[in-house]
Amino acid sequence: MIARRLLDSGPLCGALGAAGLVGAWEAAGRTGFISPTVFPRASAVLSRAAGLAADAGFLSCVVSTLGAWAIGLLLTVAVAVPAGFLLGTLPGLERAFGPVFEFLRPIPSVALIPPALVLFSDKVDMKITLIVYAASWPVLINTMYGLKEVDPLAKETLRAFGFGPAAVLWRVSLPSTAPFIAAGVRLAAAVALIVGISVEFLAGGAGGSGIGVFLIEAGGATDALEYIVAAALWAGVIGYLSNGLFVLAERRAFRWHTARTEVAR
Amino acid sequence: MLEISNLTHTYGSGPGSHHALGGVDLSVAEGELVCIVGPSGCGKSTLLRSVAGLLRPGGGEVLFNGAPVAGTPKDLAVVFQDYSRSLFPWMSVADNVSLPLRRKGLDRPRREEAALEALTQVGLEEAGAKYPWQLSGGMQQRVAIARALAYRPALLLMDEPFGSVDAQTREDLEDLTLRVRGHHAMTILLITHDIDESVYVGDRVVVLSGAPATVVGDLRVDLPEPREQIATREHPGFVRLRAEVGRLVRGPRPAAQHPTPETV
């Protein structure tokens, strides 16, 4: 009875799952199934993680990563949304650039780090450029997809009242595409974090800063693995929180969208 | 006020083309409520879209107050059948109604005032702050009608406006249309596939043939005013007209192909 009620509550059930995994991880260490020299115990990693939260060096790394992430994401929106609108409203443009995009899109962003290292002298510039490149795809594609989903009758309604193409774009196409754009930005936020930390890690420490740089530098310390796993844990927490905030904001801003799709079901 | 002469339109070309309008002639006088009926797929909506300037017809001419229609004429509003798609879900009911008034250059207070007035006319003065999807289908279509009324059009086009609501709501909306028509000096062109409805609300019923559509009948409805759902529909004149319209809609076909009600 109580167990059933626990399982019904989403957050509680999720916490239970996480606690179970951490417990299993700790037990594996304590029973000697996994030696602490191969992989640190949960308790050791968690206490390191708690220590990092008060560590000025680590915090400045987090700030650096988050700064590049935020700037990269803003630039992504500024580039990919207008580009999506151009491609989505001008079919000729989509036909011309579609194949190029289909070629570029599957290239892993990490593979672009070596050429980027040659191209850029400034590591922050390089990090932000690669974030914008990788994060633009989901925003671009969602914007184009959302534009295709705009109801022709909604556009026709405004045209019938004598509104021109610019007004139809601004008053119908943009608001009706907004939920798709927001979902694209949420995906882009996750991509931006992954790419940002990867670039920091691969581009190396000299002159750089960020969670990825912290991971490299921790590699030389004693208890290196504890630090690395603890830092990775924080990266996970940041990703989880950002995703949750985006979902919450989307639900609030696009109540009309969810309410309508629920009715349609 | 509206002169349509020899209007033709074909969608596409080659073997897959659809010849929708085959030379439609129609003239509508100021203040008239003209219903257009015809078999489904006959090109009624093509006709309406040509009048609204949403579609450039293949041939012929549409004159609105003496001027040829190129683009959407001013002083024209359209009520579509599908209210759930025609109303904007991201805007409140009041904003939906007042949005077209931006075209008229009204400032915000005057737009809001006009929206409230129009919503009051359709009995939805309390619903302004709600969103369209929070209302029933019939209420949503009343919002769409209020949006058209607030715009104060000289010509109101209605494309199957009551086709997506239940029978009771349909009657309410028919009466609402007749009532608001009295408040505004509007000419109304209403497209429907419902023969009874065309006779009940119209001053005139224009019957189109199947595609390519031409006008095969133009009947004046001389029923006593005001129209009333029960009394009007049992009036001998109503029964005669609906039979006449019905025959025109069916077209000249051999009777044997249509089973009589007794054999069904």
Give short descriptive properties of this protein.
A: mainly alpha; about 0% strand; B: about 260 residues; four-stranded antiparallel beta sheet; 10 strands; about 20% strand
Summarize the structure.
The complex is a heterodimer of chains A (265) and B (264). With 265 residues, chain A is mostly helical.
Task: Explain what this protein looks like in three dimensions.
The complex is a heterodimer of chains A (265) and B (264). Chain A is mainly α. Chain A has twelve helices and no strands. Chain A is globular. In chain B, helix 6 links the parallel strand 7 and strand 8. A six-stranded mixed beta sheet of chain B has the order 6-7-8-3-9-10, sandwiched between helices. A four-stranded antiparallel beta sheet of chain B has the order 2-1-4-5, with helices on one face. Chain B has nine helices and ten strands. In chain B, helix 7 (195-201) crosses helix 9. The A-B interface holds A 151, 153-154, 156-163, 171-172, 175-176, 178, 254, 256-257, 259-260, 263 and B 52-54, 71-74, 76-78, 80, 82, 85-86, 88-90, 99-100, 103, 131, 133-134, 151, 157.
Which bin fits the share of residues in helices of chain A?
A: over 70%
Oligomer: heterodimer
Helix-strand category of chain B: alpha/beta
- Provide the CATH topology of chain A: MetI-like fold
Radius of gyration of chain B: 19 Å
Structural class computed from helices and strand pairing of chain A: mainly alpha
Which spans of chain A of ≥5 residues are poorly predicted at pLDDT below 50? Answer: none
What is the general shape of chain B?
globular
- Order of strands across the widest beta sheet of chain B? 6-7-8-3-9-10
* Terminal residue distance of chain A: 32 Å
